[in-house]
Amino acid sequence: MLVRVADPAILPSHVARCSVAVDLHDEAADLDATFAGIELPARLRDAARKRHIEYLAGRWCVREALRAQLPERAGITVGHDDSRAPVWPDGLVGSITHTQNFVSSAVAPIEAARSLGIDSEVRFSVERARRLGGHFARPRELADLARAGLDEGDVATLVFSLKESVFKCLHPFVRGYFGFQVAHVVEVSAREGRARVRLVEGLTREFAAGCELEGRFELGGDHLHTALVIDG
Ligand SMILES: CC(C)(COP(=O)(O)OP(=O)(O)OC[C@H]1O[C@@H](n2cnc3c(N)ncnc32)[C@H](O)[C@@H]1OP(=O)(O)O)[C@@H](O)C(=O)NCCC(=O)NCCS
To answer: Of 72, 154, 170, 184, which one's alpha carbon is 20 to 30 angstroms from that of 178?
Structure first.
């Protein structure tokens, strides 16, 4: 039910990463055997099987990423707090994403990165982009990116995904919810897979209004992947 796939090449080499293709609807798979040693928190016991699989697969990816790059930390447990944010053990930072059939984790020692955010999305159709774009972007924001060399669906997917990566990456500093209006994607280089995000509302003293962050992205088959790193 779980097959290793290529990691999106959008993170520095000091960040350990593991990505898998997963059948979230596999009714036959033995989850205890597949995810042996990974605990499901009590609060998720009554959740749907799909939710069990995505939660466990994210932690499985953390363990495999650490085995490859930081084997002395491979036995760690990553829980989650009341806001659903993953709780990383001392000395590590990381991020988890899951979307239809794809689950991935990124983890790094705190000396290498102060925070990480990764996100993957199934690429939006143009119809979906037009229907949902207003929920996460200003019309002007999407229009300004129209010359970036991506189609309309991919521009919307990119803006949405980058903002989710921003949220995951900055949440440990902000320690509270902040919505999509806080950041604007102001520039995209499709050739380099880079995008600039500007905070238009201040979140903390360090992440003040006007602060700019550089995100990376990659289009891979049906998916668009984004990542953001705050350097150590
Ligand atoms: C938190 C949020 C980004 C997660 O989105 P999602 O659609 O579930 O995305 P993914 O499947 O890619 O990621 C899920 C993982 O994100 C991680 N996550 C959840 N909340 C998080 C938080 N507050 N901080 C960091 N990571 C978080 C978890 O590891 C979760 O997986 P798990 O529950 O299995 O451990 C989304 O639910 C949300 O609240 N978005 C609105 C806020 C936002 O994006 N603002 C934009 C600011 S510019």
So the answer is: 154
Choice from 61, 115, 168, 217 to test ligand 1 binding pocket (greatest atom count within 8 A of CB): 168
Protein fold of 119-231:
Ribosomal Protein L22; Chain A (3.90.470)
Q: What is the Å distance from ligand 1's center to 118 Cα?
A: 9
> What does the pLDDT look like over 76-119, one tens digit per residue?
999 999 889 999 999 999 999 999 999 999 999 999 999 999 99
CA of 55 to the centre of ligand 1 (A): 12
Closest by CA to 117, choosing from 81, 79, 88, 138, is 88
Equal fold, 2-110 vs 119-231: yes
Residue 11 alpha carbon to ligand 1 centre in Å: 19
Quote the pTM value: 0.97
Contact 102, 21 (CB under 8 A): yes
Domain boundaries, the chain: 2-110, 119-231
Taking Cα atoms as reference points, which of 83, 131, 102, 129 lies closest to residue 218?
102
pLDDT tens digit string along 198-230? 999 999 999 999 999 999 999 989 999 999 999
Nearest CA to ligand 1 atom 46: 180
Distance CA 184, CA 197 (A): 6
CATH number of 2-110: 3.90.470.20
